[in-house]
Give the backbone structure.
Amino acid sequence: MAVYALTGFSLVSLLSFGYLSWDWMKPSLVADVATDPMEKSLPPSFARPPHIIFILTDDQGYHDVGYHGSDIQTPTLDRLAAEGVKLENYYIQPICTPSRSQLITGRYQIHTGLQHSIIRPRQPNCLPLDQVTLPQKLQEAGYSTHMVGKWHLGFYKKECLPTRRGFDTFLGSLTGNVDYYTYDNCDGPGVCGYDLHEGEDVAWDQSGKYSTFLYAQRVSKILASHSPKEPIFIYVAFQAVHTPLQSPKEYIYRYRSMGNVARRKYAAMVTCMDEAVKNITWALKKYGYYDNSVIVFSTDNGGQTFSGGSNWPLRGRKGTYWEGGVRGIGFVHSPLIKRKRRTSWALVHITDWYPTLVSLARGNLSNVPDLDGYNVWPAISEGKKSPRTEILHNIDPLYNHAKYGSLEDGFGIWNTAVQASIRVGEWKLLTGDPGYSDWIPPQTLTNFPGSWWNLERLTDGLRKSVWLFNITADPYERYDLSDQRPDVVRTLLTRLVHYNRTAIPVRYPAENPRAHPDFNGGAWGPWASEDEGEEWEGGQEPLKSRNKKKKCKICKLRSFFRKLNTRLMSNRI
């Protein structure tokens, strides 16, 4: 029998942490910038396609924004959200690559073959080349397109790079995480390389600059050099607040009273990112874009709780299909919104941005059939009902199968050992192993001893493979109704079967030793020739490299000379 430690704790906890007393109107750091008199005479309208700024943060927890009751200072985000539309029924994916792929393609990851894990630096894998991307559609509509920040959609061939997938310019990293100052990334012991790129070249000269500020400065430069009379799309994918936990000291100092060291550093990074968003907003106003702009803010997945993040009061964390892993922070800020200053509970998923933004840009969606996203602009701008009624969170056939799952438990139509999750209306179903399932309070009171995060824990579930929740009535996923409502379980399992029939084979190839940065002058970058075919095993477990031992023997001497060459190049720069 389940032990619900939250039952007597929840209301007091929510009040004590300020969750039920959000300050919706915190002061903003966004300055009022004087604009050209001619610009003021133009009323906000859709006479011209709007400028689109899409801001994506990395590993920012649901609780980690001021207007969700956090102790972390985010005055810019609070002000922008308060003046726009807060999306409080907004869903993303539990890890990096899946969210980014679904944003860029408008398709669930089962329809791009990226339903398992992330794209790793040494894998010959990338966003499928047959997918027409969001920036490509905006280019067709006459937009100038720019990307700043983290790509994480593969780079083993040049065709996979951002500048080959629809972006006119790119400044950022190709892999999943880098040092905020040195831009080094290690994919295992001794497999390290530099990862900051300008277009298709390595940006050695930018080393030493804190990435959050570097990216905001680049956005400002792009806006300064472009004409506000021509539509522009800028995708700002901040590295923040992913590990490593690094921030300028002056931001850490303001959180010196926080007892939890990881939380202190993390909070500093969030506030630093908030200031970068302030600078971007200031540039939009200064250079005459703001009145005809749409700013979308989104997180990419839930917060990583053992790295300072908090998804309280939601259950779970990054990498799980509990709400703490897939419910995101999201809002839209724009003078073009008809009904501003409100909270929307319309169901929205990250795949919806593709058709929504292309429609705003007056682009053509007729040649990209079978999108999984919907145009949700009427729901956001006018408060109309969302066209979305369900979300496939994912089906991952390669993830470790649950020990106690079976076809029998799935009414003979679904193997409940398979990791999957779906939301239909107010119901949410999970099968297999959904991931770490605890509720984790904010790490702000003191340094908790040992496994402090186990303060609130469900003691059952170890022998389960099916969970059902009414998310509307129970957003914190405390009460599993799978035994009481087998009819609903069967209905949602039928929807999983439907989606699974449309899934394509999983793309998750073995790592390739040719990807080692030592073979690329010390930097991560493309290693396969353009005429090489795609190397992936559809629906199979990752293959082990048969050449691993041989590679290590061959590469020792080569590695020495590559490192020597890298040092010489660095000294010259």
Summary: The CA atoms of residues 405 and 417 lie 4 Å apart. The two ends are 65 Å apart (CA to CA).
